[in-house]
Design a protein that fits this description.
Length: about 180
């Protein structure tokens, strides 16, 4: 009953059908199925990306599918139809991005991983006010990006003639004489 309205909300380029075909890009299991019935559908088609709109009172029964990244969205109760349309568009876009990444060669994938790691460090540094923690973030990032057991980002303090760094797991900065 909601398929025509959902198709209208999704717009052109996305086909909506009431089917259980195994070749679908995305399956949206709606409120017409109980949580257990939705689980049975997922077990029959364990590799199709899914949105479960009415998991019921036992969402934990879907944990294996969540862990394997088969379920894109899970809700105890169905959200409004316009939100369902937004979820479907988002899930399809996510899968398109993943397909593009799968076509990327190993060197490009490595560059993407490095770029994402750098972006995460920059985001953390941008919100950090403690210079010692920033040293720790940079050291951890350097270690991770170079595949080393540990990394350090030392700061030269010419006023006190010391070099210091901080390990994020440590209690405080380690200070050494700059002369040595």
């Amino acid at each position: 009953a909601d398929a025509p309205r959902l198709a209208e909300l999704l717009g052109s380029g996305i086909e909506v059908s009431l089917t259980s075909e195994a070749n679908a890009d995305l399956v949206c299991l709606g409120p017409g199925l109980s949580g257990r019935d939705a689980l049975n559908v997922l077990e029959q088609h364990p590799h199709i990306r899914s949105i479960v709109l009415a998991a019921g009172r036992e969402p934990e029964i879907f944990q294996d599918f969540i862990d394997s990244d088969v379920i894109y969205f899970l809700s105890r109760r169905p959200p409004p139809l316009d939100e369902v349309a937004a979820l479907l568009r988002s899930a399809l876009a996510h899968d398109e991005r993943q397909k593009r990444l799968d076509r990327v060669n190993t060197a490009e994938r490595g560059a993407l991983v490095v770029a994402r790691a750098i972006a995460r460090v920059v985001d953390r540094i941008a919100t950090e006010t403690d210079i010692e923690r920033i040293s720790g973030f940079l050291g951890n990032a350097a270690g991770a990006l170079t595949d080393a057991d540990e990394g350090r980002f030392a700061i030269d303090d010419p006023l006190h003639e010391t070099l210091w760094f901080r390990d994020l797991e440590g209690a405080g900065a380690v200070r050494n004489s700059a002369a040595s």
